[in-house]
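Lab notebook, bench 4. The sequencing result for the construct came back, and we need a structural model before the next group meeting so we can plan mutations. Quick request posted to the team channel:

Model the 3D structure of this chain.
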Amino acid sequence: MALGGALAAAEPLVAAVRGVLYERCLPLATADLEITTTVTGPDAGLPGAGLTALRHNLPTAPVPQEESASA
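Done. Here's the predicted structure in token form:
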């Protein structure tokens, strides 16, 4: 899970989201869950919404891969 946009800069909010998710979800559901922030800027929701629409309408839509740190 990634939080982006202006909300990603609000560390107390990010910490609260982490706390609530881990508190209310079963351990099996959060075992591999990583909650992180993005650096996409204030319009971070736009690419996320687009990707969600693609996944909903094209179940085989490719998932973008993170760029390598050595690149």
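The CA atoms of residues 49 and 55 lie 10 Å apart.
Will bring this to the meeting.
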